[in-house]
Write a structure and sequence with these properties.
Helix content: 25-40%
Distance between the termini: 14 Å
Number of strands: 8
Low-confidence stretches: 47-55
Radius of gyration: 16 Å
Strand content: 15-25%
Structural class: alpha/beta
Shape: globular
Largest sheet: 6 strands, parallel
Oligomer: single chain
Mean pLDDT: 87
Length: 191
């Protein structure tokens, strides 16, 4: 695996599938909706493609708070760039006592439709006071192709995390610059 740039300073994190695991709540909601429509699906694995909607049923991945603490101690500036509505993102970060690690949070506006992952990355960059065109010393960290494609559109390298919701090979297929398998290996790459 290639080394990260030595001058890396800003880390933009996706929320669902990167910092938190919202799969159980989302899958239960989809199963319930299908059951109400007369098409029950007891096999939750068949419904994984629905993961991503802004639901509040989350759990923090093991090791994330400790990793965020170490990254801050190491001098990184942390931000969240998520497609989840910002109002819910802020609540989730507060609920899990993660907000203290982040200098900026960028999420969708529930009153505007059509915002993309690239839009959220640009918003996070603005809130960090960084230029939107080829931002220096910055990397995006996410678990899906949308994170990789949004980062590429913003000229930001991307670390893909396999412990999230990507299908096998998805991160590599869409061109993640680095891919890690766990919170532990993400920490080893960054520290």
């Amino acid at each position: 695996m290639k080394a990260l740039p030595k001058d890396l300073r800003y880390l933009l994190f996706d929320l669902d599938g990167t910092l938190t695991d919202s799969a159980e709540g989302i899958l239960r909601c989809v199963q319930y909706a299908l059951e109400q429509c007369g098409t029950p699906e007891p096999n939750a694995e068949k419904l994984r493609s629905f993961i991503g909607p802004p639901l509040l049923e989350n759990a923090v991945y093991d090791g994330i708070p400790e990793l965020l603490e170490k990254l801050r101690e190491h001098g990184y500036v942390l931000a969240v760039a998520t497609s989840k509505p910002e109002v819910y993102t802020l609540r989730i970060l507060e609920h899990f006592d993660l907000s203290r690690y982040f200098t900026a949070v960028a999420g969708c506006d529930i009153h505007r439709a059509g915002e993309t992952k690239a839009d959220m990355i640009r918003l996070a960059l603005r809130r960090l006071g960084l230029p939107e065109q080829e931002p220096p010393q910055t990397v995006m960290i996410g678990d899906r192709k949308h994170d990789v494609l949004g980062a590429r559109e913003c000229r930001v390298p991307c670390i893909g995390v396999r412990y999230g919701y990507a299908e096998a090979g998805e991160l590599e297929q869409y061109g993640a610059d680095w891919v890690t398998d766990s919170v532990e290996t993400l920490g080893k790459l960054l520290l």
